[in-house]
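Chain A, query sequence.
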Amino acid sequence: MKVIHIPCLEDNYSYLVIDENTKQGAVVDPVEPEKVIGVAKENGVELKLVLTTHHHWDHAGGNEKIKELVPGIKVYGGSIDNVKGCTNKVENGDKLSLGADINILSLHTPCHTKGHISYYLTGKEEDDPAVFTGDTLFVAGCGKFFEGTAEQMHESLCVTLASLPKQTKVYCGHEYTVKNLQFAQTVEPENAKISQKLSWAQQQRQSGLPTIPSTIGEELEFNPFMRADLPEVQEKVGCKSPVEALRKIRELKDNWRGDEPGWSRI
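Chain A, predicted structure.
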């Protein structure tokens, strides 16, 4: 299983997932279809599937166009998320396949949108699994609670996604890592994992390189939203339960101005 990052718009990523035996591919959130198709052609890949995480235009906005450009392509999206261009609706636990070796599991991860789907992919035995989390889980962060509650985000992050194997690679929808880690330091200033990851992420961005993927194991070490179950994190934000702490951390993030423009978007 091979994954190629495709930078789109200002700070989005689409991803091309390739089954290397058959050269069949799936694309996650192809908001700029022509760019995605170009990358597929460069790699000799036949596009078969679109995996849409949620209905927001910067993720689903290219679906209709890619259907025109790649006749017969299947477009998957959450059954209750009103995804533009969707041909095949998926529920939590639905299974798909790509090529000879890739299995895809749909995970309902609501809150950012009510029908948000994350896609968990496994390939050959030697391949690390991967999860495409859209705007539910970012590296060191999570999406705003546009259509859901702290209870839902806790379930999505700390139960559903946290239960995946620790080595699972996390591919999220936006390049927000540096700002997320800067905020994470305000929650846990003494957490050395945050400082180390921030230093690395800043070097990556200065070199024009992505900070994605992380892993589920890493997120449990430095992502304050996924660490809301820990009593020491709850204490830091003056809360006594995981859901309370997660809600409070999101409120703090929503009001945090950070060091750079664009803080309010994430």
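The domain at 2-260 is CATH 3.60.15.10 (Metallo-beta-lactamase; Chain A). The chain has a mean pLDDT of 96.
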